[in-house]
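Exam revision sheet. Question 4 asks you to relate a sequence to its structure. Input first:
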Amino acid sequence: MATGRELEGRVALVTGAARNIGRAIAVALADAGAAVVVNARTSREEAESVAAQIVRDGGKAMAFLADVTDERAVAAMAAAAMDRFGRLDVLVNNAAVRDASTIDGIDFAAWRKVTGIILDGAFLCTKACLPGLRASGAGAIVNIGGMSGHTGAAGRPHVVAAKLGLVGLTRALAHDLAPDGITVNCVVPGLIDTKRGASSGKTAHLRETLLGRHGTPEEVAAVVRFLAGPQGRYVTGQEWHVNGGAYLG
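Answer key, structure tokens:
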């Protein structure tokens, strides 16, 4: 896996980066030398904390609050990244919500909220970042999926549908963007030790891993770092499962 400063001079935008896997990804990309735009929707203090940590460690970062379902806000975020750092090389679509409810309890507004953040957000961020990614010459998009999109899960039809939709988007964009030198991949975390809200639900669909433990956000971030860097330039359109053998895709 990549080490050193392989992303020196590059710029990355990570959505949903205020905590958990998103935070670990932002820190890992900064450790690789990238300047990082730390996105959150409302968690200003946490996003600024991530950016401050990166700066304390000698890196470059800025926090930017934007709802990834708001086209104008997303466009403003991409513009701010270009204005501040002069380029944009890596986009990580990590923003998500893990609401738990059966189909009987989901109205259309709830469906649109979840699928909007996960799937529409990835679409809008990709569209807004495309000029910078094309100009990079070595652009990389990494979508963060979910194991339940492959195994299914009770009580989360909206989350499962959106996460598997990211896989389809990944494959389609890999075809469309290859001529621009942009790689597009999907990293699919399994059972990862993170802090989750009460509405996130339980991972009842699969409780065991072959390795006998849950993963860490940093282990997911290491794979994202590889795919964003020079050693991952021959990888595109793929799903990278990081799950300790809980699901063998």
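Marking note for examiners. The two ends are 21 Å apart (CA to CA).
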